[in-house]
Fold each of these.
Amino acid sequence: MNRSPGITRVSRSWLIPVALTLALSGCGDTSLRSTRYRAEQLLWHADLTESAVLLRDDYPDSTTLLGLRAPYLDVAKKVEVPPLSAATSKEESTLAIDVMRLVGNSNLQAARLAVQANRPDLGIENMKLVQAMAGNDTLMLRRADFFLVGTLRQYKRYEEAVALMKTMLERYPPITPQTSKDEDAILAIPESIVRLYRDLNDSTRANAALNDAGAYYRRVLATPHSPILDAQVRARLIRVELEQGDWNAGLRDVAILRRMASASPALKDLEPEIRYSEAKLVMMHTGKQNPNEAVALFEKVAKDFPKSPFAGRALMDAATVLELHNRFPEALNYYRQVTTSYGNQPDIAPPATFRRAMLEDRLGNWEQAKNLLDGIPVRYPETMAALEAPIAIANRYARIGQGDAAKQAVRKAIQTYQGLIQRDTTSGYTPLYRWSIVRCYGLLGDDQGVLRAVDEMVRRDMGHPITAQALLQGARIAHQAKQDDRARVYLQNYVVNYPTSPILADVKKQLARIPARGTATKTGS
Amino acid sequence: MHRNFRVARACGVEAARDFQWNEYAPFAWILGAQLLFLLLALNLGTTIGMGTAGAAVKLFAGDAPLHYPTFFLYLPNFNSWVELFLYTFPGSILIPISIARIQAPMDPDLQGAGFKGRVKRAWLPTLVAGILTLLLLGVWQWAFNVALVPLIRASFPGLQANAGIWAASLIGAYCLSALFLYVPILALQPDTTLVKALREGFREGLRLFKWTILYIFIFALPALPFLMAIQLGTAFMAERMRPEMIAVVIAIYAILISLATYLTYAAAARLHWASQVEEA
């Protein structure tokens, strides 16, 4: 090529200064920035690989899922997390934290896939790696801890989950949100513990957890915070106090919250909750004698704030208090409003649908009631209403003396519960569905069916409080059916697995009364 | 008219048929720099990529675009800045060199000692014309966004409106470039001055406007689908394909438009010479 002498001069006059400027402007944090970019690139490609597999197969098998972990684990392998202590400027420190969070996130994604592949051991290992790597980065530690809690709950390691949640409350002080619409997830933990025990049907520990929740919120309120955080904590405390039926404390805290909200425009979003709490306090105070005032207040909350989650709750409470006073048509009207306008609100729609069905039946509209009850397990599968609805149909037929229809309804209920178990075999509700199957076989008088269902619970749900009841029921029926070996195994299982049960001494006495004989019947446990 | 068309066509065909690496080389330098930028941009995960292309981007746009895959959504913009910079500043020397080599067979003085002196004189008018074109392009883009874009959006549905805006914007930009295309050609004439080169170049641009715009569009035609993909389809490429695809498409566009620019100058230089001979 015929090179012009001008080119050499061009490189001197333009290219060298440009290259120097660019190189110098990138000095210092360039290496960290490129590491962050590489981590983002690897993480993005891992996500892409996973999406591509999920496009081909909605439910990949565990081998595929474990294979999908590899690209996420590659991020940790290929990207070295820079030591935070080595950062010499704020920008370098921010970049180092970014890299650490990216590597941490990829580990959490690997953990998620391990859990999905039914390998919680691998998942928990990943999460612990994140905890170790996070150092003092609270955001990353919190994320790992929340993930771990979810995993432990999924694998029914409830005690460990609760223990971790309790340590989280100690370790992570609640963060002040930007607006009153955002809330730190830490604040929801005390109530999550209460709900966990309620889902386990363990009312004693649920009540203790409720007391702990109240104590935690009071402790947080004792230290000074921003008005928004203070108001959010107090609102949660009021909910606890209302559940505890502590009218005086509730009244006092609502008054404080009302003062705070009127003093700060940033807290105007709390108005529906304050108004709802005030209505609830009125209901607690005067509702037993005359529900009209409370109902009017609840209705006003629903009318003034129809888009707030408290609107549905207010209508539900109005219906409940009217039903307690046997004012069924009015109560039914409120239940209908809840089911039609707030049918997607998971905390109120399922019980409202169930109660509506009960009142429709009571007021002579059984067809409508049956349709509603049949629809509950489909529309709201993991709820107490889904547990009760199929049996409620059978109970209604039994109540009016239609024995055959009742038996048919019980058989259908068993199929419904089996379908719900199949739908999500790892759901926290599966022990309760199996317990409902035990109850159904009991209603049918099918002892072998009861024992089969108890065996299934022993195999799958040992440690769950409802399984304790199933063991006692199984032992009683096995003893009646002259299967003492089987009864003994059930009781022995009870003694071993429920050592803190308050009726342990009685169970031991019962066990001692069963004569030792031959080989125990296989229970599969 | 028919004769003029035949001459213009003959100049265009000859420019394409007589492609010379030697003449194209200055444009290849510009292309090389552009491809180097893209190569470095594709390697932001390395210290050298981040320290060069990344640092240049950070200088103008801060840290926000330096994330994966967001960076590739910004890349067409960064690339057009780089392209404008290269064609305006280094181009003010490289383009006259290329045109001088194209004109050398028609102007014996450019084959010998005159080459250096005339190229030296031509860089300033070329730079001023380049900056003027940039300014006019900026004004055109602003006026277009304010006046025409809302009108097109109101008249056509989504995709058609986007395509219409893209086409109208492109036509306007090419028309403006055509007006100043002859400045470096006139600047290479012996005994020319800055003002004379700009004035005569602009006049020549107006006089040969329709043929010049024809050259620009015909030679740029293969590059236009890629330009359209870069300007309208980056999100699609990033989401449905791979973000790196954007850089590959930009590279293909850069190669094609570099060849098109060379051929346009080659054809325009020949047309200018032919019209001068005809007038003489």
Note: The mean pLDDT of chain B is 90.
Amino acid sequence: MRLINKLNIYFLISLLVILVAGTYVQYLYVSARVDKRVQKTLIKEKKLLVKQILDKEKVEGFKLYKTEESEVQLSEEQSVLKNEFIKQFFFDEDEDEYVKYMVLKCRVKANNHFYDMVIKKPLLQANDLISSIIYSLFIILLILFAIYMLLNRFVYKKLLAPFYTTLEKLRKYDLEAGEKISFSEKSSTYEFNFLNAELNDMTSKIYKYFDNHKMFSENAAHELQTPLSVIKSKAELLLQARNFEDDDIENIDTILSSVDRISRINSSLVILSKIENHDFSLDTEIPLNPLFKVSLNHLNVIAEDRGINIDFVENDKFNLKINEEWAYILVNNLLKNAVRHNIENGWIKITINKDSFVVENSGFELDDKPTNYFKRFIKGSKTGSTGLGLAIIKDICTKTNLDVEYTSIRKEHRISITKLD
Amino acid sequence: MKILIVEDEFELAESIESYFKQEGYVCEHAPNLKIAIEKVSVYEYDCIILDINLPEGSGLSALEALGNKKESTGTLILSANQLLDDRIDGLNRGADDYLTKPFHLAELNARVKSIIRRKQHKGSNEININEIKINLDSKQVFINEEEVRLTKKEYELLLFFISNKNRVLTKNSICEYIYGDFIDQLDSFDFIYSHIKNLRKKLISAGCEDYLNTIYGVGYNFKISS
């Protein structure tokens, strides 16, 4: 849910609370005021009645006075009673309902006579009062809410603009791509400046750790080469010792081939981390065609043993802005792959066009989706390979803006590499 | 034969030394560039094995510093860096060969021997062991003066065996010698195996003694005493 909608909901809920509480408070206040007013009127009326009693007493003996709203009669008690107000319901036949009255009871003394006096006045009906309060409050709040929503549309969009800019930057960011982002926009809102400052701080820390980590894997892999060389050479020397049983020799050989395997994986890791860590100098274009020829020359030694037929079709020159080292690794890995995962008496077809080149070869059926083989350490069932060859190809292609596509139909494999722009 | 090993990793230098000593070579070890230059200026070496990843910086400059050496001294570069740059750079600056760490001692041995042979051949460039004679220029092999026709790979294999005679050679080291860094899996040995079988057949039928001993599951030993 969007922040604005959330705010709206909270606002709406608080409006409802205000409506209920406001109505109650208003009701109490208004009814208290009305009570006071009515009481004052009653007292006025009382004075008027007393005056009437005095006037009438001179003419005739006053005993009882009664109207709809007041009743005066001669009292048997001989004392004065103070004003007493009571609220009381009386049935109103016209309205056919009980109506609330304010009643004044008192006993007054006039011309040495005591009179009991009861005067009443109808009060405002509570439900009438409440409903009119609710009605007026509701209208006010509705207008408020409408204004608020309108303001939301314009003000919040403007207010939250820096926030959305930051969000969009975060969404587009790709750490792997190596580009750095900075959240430098200044806004007049304290929180957004604070957020941006914290994000800057955090991302620079992430870069630092990421760089450290990358350099670490590169250095670690590099540093491993020497001890591996030592193990390998010592094992080879052991192999030459004359007094070993056949079993011992076989064990040493196993150590040797395991070391070979580690060092192959390790050297692939060195290459991978170098691709990730360093920019390629992409200023000059070099033709890849001669590199294919050099690589094929090396490959022929093993390809002819395996009876693999190599078909090399040069339709055009494929030039690429790439460092020669990486170009060599790219071509070499592609062709090595085609030979390594081939079958005896199989075939390889290499086609070079202006903007693309394709390596096709016979081989084994894949167990997995072709694209999965671009991931590190994903390899076919054959044990010899490191599972890093295609990952290296993919990484170099990504760095040099090439699209690499691997498709496989049963026992035929096809890797095509195309320039992206 | 005298060899200088310029290598900062003591254990590795010692392994190389030990392997070459068994070949009857005289080895000296220089743990850094300064000592290496001193040694080169005083003594004469047949081959210098130079690790170019020395702590003093790129050993390629070492190659130049050692560049004033005699024409007859060969140089083989060792590097932990598989990338092409070093290799091309090294060879351009006058190195005779290049090997990436980690390497097989047998391969280092074969390559150093080949460098020394190339550098020092005056007149005939031949290997003679008992009834076997190899002409390195014409790449011909003779058994009891009778030529045996070998394929390129059979010839390379024979040379590798003779360079590392009386040594245990693993399938892996043989594969790597023949296929270079293109071998990544053991099943390529099946093909090497058939080459070895053919080579053996050809040599025996030409009247050569069967020097090649199979070490079951591991590799071969070319046992010959001259």
Note: The CA atoms of residues 232 and 259 of chain A lie 7 Å apart.
Amino acid sequence: MTAEERQVGSPVGGAAPQKQEVPPWRLLATLGTAGAMAGFLIVFVFVATEPAIKAHKAEVLRLAIQEVLKGPARFDTLFVHEGALQEQLPPGMDAEQVEQIYVGYAEDGSQVGFAIASAEPGFQDIIRLIFGYDSNTGATLGMKVLESKETPGLGDKIEKDMTFVQQFDAAVAPLVGVSARQSTGDEHEIDMITGVTISSRAVIRIINNSLERLGPLLESYNGGGSQ
Amino acid sequence: MRATTPRQDFVRGIWQENPVLVHMLGLCPALAVTNTVANSLAMGLATFFVLTGSSLLVSTFKRFIPHEVRISTYILIIATFVTIADMSLEAIVPDVHKALGAFIALIVVNCMILGRQEAFSSKRPVLRSLLDAFGTGIGFIIAMLMMGTVREVLGNGSFLGWSLFGPNYEPWVIFVLPPGGFFTIGFILLGLNWVERRKKQKPMVREWPEGVASEKAA
């Protein structure tokens, strides 16, 4: 060990006899400088990584919309504002703070349906999903989980168990969750996954609640002939 | 403090004083995110990055950090590197970031990292601290990969997503669930301790020179 190391090591050893009082301003200055440097570094990395993160999120959302609306020719974004769906972003508002709904169109310009993203608590944490909905027939067109921290191997079956996911391709709202044994084949019924009751029920609840909340808006949007 | 050679600083953390398998530090991520090999590797690399970066800064600025506020300063430095790792992972490998979830942020409270700063980097020169961080970081990655391999192979029948046993294999799901983490670490520690004990006992028998035993008996 060099003399320099010993010198640096000694005050940390605990039994330093010549303990010097460090002035408070030095403690403050150390923490202040360290904090400022940390802040600077974080801001730098944040600015550098933000475009990639945002682009990825937008791409994930775009793919999810394509999936739940079964590949529409194009889709538009609608903004939920003051109890109505608006095609333009309300002036003076940030697009990220306004709830958005997506409306998909087929090649011939006819409406395919709406894609609605919504989130509510599941078993472990918030489940965020997007689903397609045809307001003319009242049927769901598809469902995709966007974010969930459900138990790997159990709760995550709500996104990995295709038999469960595909039931949302043609179920009629309001949805009713039943266990596989009680299934009668009714169009409102969704067979829940055995052992994943809470997460399955959460998915059904999220869809029912968002339709209850947004259903009238969708109908008035279509009734208004603004297509 | 015990004097060590640079080689010892580096090698020690890899196996002999492996942070997870010997010191039992950083067990939280080792139990929580090792359900697949890919997750284990990503977590290991993120921790390696944070450990190396923090050791570099702590040993560089150790003279300017007063004893009274050293822990707060170390945590601040570690938290900065964790935030950088978190944002970089989200930008570069979003799927892995999603799989690791909250555990990346929790690297801040990994006692292995704070332990190395307090025990080593705050007292040693920069290069030695870097060697120590490399060794400990590699040791952590090795431990994570051991856990991840056992759990993914048994619990999912695959390695890095490649199916090993074909579609007829019934996965041992418990191994990818939290209890499987405890079982795996338990069996790995059991095996390692058994090997260590055998290694210690064997030379005593072997090195006994021939004829000594009979002389003693006589």
Note: The longest helix of chain A spans residues 24-68.
Amino acid sequence: MSETDQLDAHLDENGEPTRRDFIYIATATVAAVGAASVAWPLVAQMGAANDTLAAGSIEIDLSKVEEGQQLKVLYRGKPVFVRYRTAKEIMEADTVEMNDLPDPETDDARLVANPQGALNTQYLVMIGVCTHFGCIPVGEAGDFDGWYCPCHGSHYDTSGRIRKGPAPLNMVIPEYKYLSDTIIKVG
Amino acid sequence: MSGPSTYEPKYAAERWLDKRLPIVRFGVDFMAFPSPRNLNYWYAFGGILTLCLMSQIITGIILAMHYTPDVNLAFDSVQRIRRDVQFGWLIQPMHAVGASMFFLAVYVHMFRGMYYGSYKNPRELLWIIGCLIYLVMMATGFLGYTLPWGQMSFWGATVITGFFGAIPVVGESLQQWLLGGYSVGNPTLQRFFSLHYLLPFVIVALVALHVWAVHHVGQNNPIGIDPKTKEDTLPFHPFYTMKDAFAIGVFMMIFALFVFYLPDALGHADNYQKADPLKTPPEIVPEWYFLPFYAILRAVPDKLLGVILMFAAIAILFILPWLDTAKVRSMRFRPVTRWFFIIFILAGFILGWCGARAPDDVAIPIGEGGLTFKWLSRIATFYYFAYFIPILPIMGWIEKTKPVPDSITKAVLSGDA
Ligand code: HEM
Ligand code: FES
């Protein structure tokens, strides 16, 4: 046995791996598991901390928004848009052909029922973040009367659905519910 | 190339030291390094880059003494550095302008390497280490730009971390992990500061490997042939230390012009507005040195494809040594490929121009409605990649190169080196 192959697998007289091989492998395995279990916390610490995760929910009073206006509220570092849509805007949102949508979704599917079980079609609540790279689109702009993202030119319609430009998806509807006729709770 | 050591310790103390730690020998041999005798001023950019790195580290460490990485305080702390800290008005722009000068120098240095074929055998690894340095520099520059916490800092960070969100399946979790939250915020700023402090020292380590590799394989030169005799080379000191010193002097004059007279010319006015997570500036533009890649990103309508192309534009540099199949190194002897290279540089500038403008604006008023920046950037992106594949491999096979001189000395004496 030369110096160099001390660490290679050897066979004993019966052609079985030696006990020394077993000890080598067992030691290396314990070291690898140990290293991995130390490495994990070092990596995982970068994720959102508990206080960030617990940043909870907010309540929004819809009666503060007038027809044709938009409210922006900060939620988890991102703006939530609450828009009181005009009749024309609702009509536009409702009459779109699904085939024209890159991310097909009806306007109704993007609304949440009020305590009476009906849809308040005038209130559109969504996360006002462009699904391309996260800029905030400008309201009442773009080719579809909805929002326009200045960063790379994405056009959204009056339901916040992507119509044209590099963004792949509709703007996200956050999880929310009506607490009363005019108060919603986001998150 | 490094050759046998020529150092002979003269005094007893030197001999004592040399036997235990040959550090003086190392320094002496380093300075005596035989360099081709025909190096021109494009070869001074290595020295210029060393100066830039030192300058960034020194000014950066000073800035860190006064800077506060907190979303409520960062913006004001940088303004305070510029207004109230003794000589802060000088040191802050030295760092901010210094980053631009660093990139200017690195681009010249890389184009130099591409023109003289310095990435070819036996310098492939030297080239790859250089590409790694460039990559870490880009990361450092991006992280640093977030620190002053202006509007461009914030929205630049949002868009760039958004690239990771484009990755299928794991994208969103990865992005949250990078940001430490749902959006760019305080955890993001703090880790960016920590990493911005770290990465320059990673660059220092990579530069050490880079220089080691140069000393092992020897420098290339404008005619791209190996030195054959002692006559073909000159000792690094004093010949090139002096030549580099002169170039550094000229470079510092340009640097000083910006620092003293145009400290904000290379920045963006929106960065003098504090970051506002509720309002995106009307137009987001990265620092000038990222513009070509930004243009490539925006050239394609698909989010994921744009990100892939942008990263590919950098990744392709790493395999350049194997894409160029030509035997002759220097473009001086490649009459046709030389033009393809010049157009490549031009495409780089065009991409930079496109990156700075709105995609739907008209760039060149030709044809019906004119050529928009989006289309111009598509053409330039196409050429950027076409240069690497297929132009370089094909030209290497079919091009008839000009005759290469027998030796560096002959070329120098006949005036074509
Ligand atoms: C590879 C070298 C480096 C590059 C390319 C670089 C780049 C940058 C850039 C572009 C900025 C933004 C400046 C502005 O727009 O105002 C910045 C800021 C900053 N950098 Fe660096 N940097 C480097 C090394 C360092 C080092 C070694 C430190 C040491 C801790 C440092 C500390 C800082 C600090 C504290 C700021 C914030 C203050 C300010 O904005 O001026 N940097 N850096
Ligand atoms: S971030 Fe909105 S279009 Fe790119």
Note: Chain B touches chain A at residues 155, 158-163, 165-166, 176-185, 187, 191, 277-284, 298, 300-304, 306, 358-360 (CB under 8 Å).
